[in-house]
Design brief:
About 45% of the residues lie in helices and about 10% in strands. By secondary structure, it is mainly α. The chain has a three-stranded antiparallel beta sheet. A two-stranded antiparallel sheet has the order 3-4. Strands 5-6 form a two-stranded antiparallel ribbon. Strand 5 and strand 6 form a beta hairpin. Helix 2 packs parallel to helix 4 and helix 3 runs antiparallel to helix 6. The protein is globular and about 65 Å long. Bound molecules: fe (ii) ion (2 copies). The site of one fe (ii) ion (FE2) has 5 residues, from helix 5 and helix 6.
Length: about 475
Amino acid sequence: MDVINVDYDGMIPNNVGLNQDIRVRKALEKWHPGYLDWWQDMGPEGFQQSLVYLRTAVSVDPKGWAKFDYVRMPEYKWGILLAPQVEDRKVPFGTHRGEKAWQEVPGEHRAMLRRLIVIQGDTEPASVEQQRYLGKTAPSLYDMRNLFQVNVEEGRHLWAMVYLLQKYFGADGRDEAEALLQRRSGDPDTPRMLGAFNEKTPDWLSFFMFTYFTDRDGKMQLEALAQSGFDPLSRTCRFMLTEEAHHMFVGETGVTRIIERTCEAMKQAGIEDPYDTERVRKLGVIDLPTIQKKANLHFSLSLDLFGNEISTNAANAFHAGLKGRFREERINDDHKLEGGTYPVLRLVDGKIEKQDVPALSGLNMRLRDDYVTDCNIGFGRWNKVIEKYGIPFQFRLSHVAFHRHIGEFSTVKADVDGNLLSESEWRRRRDEFLPSDSDRDFIESLMQPQREPGKFAGWIAPPKVGIDNKPGDFEYVKIQ
Ligand SMILES: [Fe+2]
Ligand SMILES: [Fe+2]
């Protein structure tokens, strides 16, 4: 088996020796038409015949793993690609630490492992469903292409998880693979499994915030699963992280370009007060306070994805060697966490307080803290843009108690600084913190498509460089 080069001859490109693995190949070939039906029904609406300048993974070599070409999305080569096997790899944490990494599912942990794979798998098609109408209002062909790139790769991530289910979980795996095509984002009867993946992504600011915050949750989850003692899961996630980096790039640079354009327009018009929203909006750009509110919304929804602060599921998954911590190998401790504590923000007698809890129970919190640190990096960059224009405004992350639906703070209301509010105060002040109906209407009014190569909608600046070093007026999508 050649782990670097991908077999493109069969129907399903792969580096897992699918040709010799007849049972799994047949199972995947059976699943394939249902996947394509799902893609046609729930994938990017109105652009299935268009030629999109996409990258396709052709290798798992970190240097030069992708090739770029025009593709019709339904003909995209969704492959199964695992990062190369690390020789003599050991289970890196938990009670089995130091044992040989598992190449087969450890029987005692089978149900837990299946659950972790299904939850990860469910998020992948969900985001495609959430973003399916955005192509129609793309601010440029460049952005449209980036959206579709993210979409096809989320499709491939679904394939990645379905491969694990089909290969290692027999009849249960087959049923789960089917169910992944049946659930629908936002459907009241058959919703996706996690809250943030049932929300709408109604406009492009939401899309960029989603790829900034929610894809970054994806990154953290994949990092934790890439540590897994179950080696095929580890290898799958390691390769997915290569693609995921681009999704967060799309989010971070998208928001940067919106901020850049707003600041530039304010400067030209001589507006110094960032809160003079009426005048700023008349320029056809999104005012900075509204961008902050969108960030508050998406950040809070993404925090919910980390689950309860105190979690026995997380403790069990770590103990079993299935899901580790962010950059486990760089942490200097026993990697078993049988002793030790971790500080967790909790609600104690109506106050937010830090409490030390057993380190194993606080693992969700730990991953979430690492996530918050990662989120802050982009905020620093966004603030630099504003500074450059000398506008007195700073973006910041809202408090973790703000607008929560899961965990310690789901029972209370708090402002963006973490001050607790009564229900009536919350209702009165809600629109200070989160996008209001009129904010949404305003943003929607800006969402006019721009389809001329090299042109951009007036509310977003062009990118600094093109994809694959293409010139500014490159036709990233040939619409047909
Ligand atoms: Fe993904
Ligand atoms: Fe992603």
